[in-house]
Amino acid sequence: MPLVIQGLNKHFDNSDKATLNEIDLEIESGEFVCIVGASGCGKSTLLNLVAGLEKPTGGKILLDGKEVTGPGADRTVMFQEHGLFPWLNVIENVKFGMKLAGVPKDEQEQKAMHYLKMVHLEDYKDYPIHQISGGMRQRTALARALTMDSKVLLMDEPFSALDKQTSNRLREELQRIWMETKKTILFITHSVEEAVYLGDRVVALSPDTGRIASIISIDIERPRHVYSPEFVELRHKIMEQVRGEAV
């Protein structure tokens, strides 16, 4: 069991109630888990705690049996904003994390090209960042995250700032890449449709109690199609759950 969250609590000093309250969750190796919920329910806080960017008020997080006490190379985070460096071109951005980690240059080149091909950007490897679209920037950021080969990939609403068409295309890309790599992914999203499309399980958080309201297994064959009857039924079920918790 690579990622175990036990009795996790988070209380901020400027709030009268806990943002997260007694969160218990186990994520299997190679599993794709999506976290959904209304604004303010603690989705991003949960990801930041797993990333080691914030400290819990109580409880603990274990990765392969070792307690998470801060950021580490075993977890890679991909945020809503791509976080690319404008003075570096596409492939140099993809190599950046590997350079910091001391990966040999030949291996940097090999892995960067491997993942650029996976996200269909090999022909744009020498382009400056300002010359590629928003969707291509997010694909560059995804390639950079994948090169780190961490145990867990943490994604915080990575497609929410993009237009609907681009975001749908990137969902398809991510589903394909996950099917190829079987990377363990914890994915934060405000979109129930996105969660049902991508996740093995969907975890709905309650904004009122800070607890897990429900965990739904998505037993739909991949690749998934948003207009299939089983997809529509599950999406509606989870949307009603999230709406009910928000009210």
Structure in words:
The protein folds into 2 domains: 28-56 and 65-76 and 151-247, Rossmann fold (3-Layer(aba) Sandwich), CATH 3.40.50.300; 87-149, no CATH class. 37% of the residues lie in helices and 22% in strands. The chain has helices spanning 43-51, 90-100, 105-118, 134-147, 164-181, 192-198, 229-246; strands at residues 3-10, 20-27, 32-36, 58-63, 66-67, 75-78, 152-156, 184-188, 201-205, 212-217. Helix 5 links the parallel strand 7 and strand 8 (184-188). Helix 2 (90-100) packs across helix 3, helix 3 crosses helix 4 (134-147) and helix 6 crosses helix 7. The relative contact order is 0.18.
Task: Describe the protein's topology.
Elements: E1 3-10, E2 20-27, E3 32-36, H1 43-51, E4 58-63, E5 66-67, E6 75-78, H2 90-100, H3 105-118, H4 134-147, E7 152-156, H5 164-181, E8 184-188, H6 192-198, E9 201-205, E10 212-217, H7 229-246
Parallel strand pairs: 3-8, 3-9, 6-7, 7-8
Antiparallel strand pairs: 1-2, 1-4, 4-5, 9-10
Helix pairs in contact: 2-3, 2-4, 3-4, 6-7
Unreliable residue stretches: none
CATH architecture designation of the largest domain: 3-Layer(aba) Sandwich
Q: Judging from the principal axes of the Cα atoms, what is the shape? A: globular
**Global mean pLDDT:** 92
Radius of gyration: 18 Å
Class of the largest domain in CATH?
Answer: Alpha Beta
Number of domains: 2
The percent range for helix content is 25-40%
Order of helices and strands: EEEHEEEHHHEHEHEEH
Please work out how many helical segments DSSP would assign.
Answer: 7
CATH homology group of the largest domain: P-loop containing nucleotide triphosphate hydrolases
Distance between the termini: 35 Å
Largest sheet: 6 strands, mixed
Strand portion, in percent? Answer: 15-25%
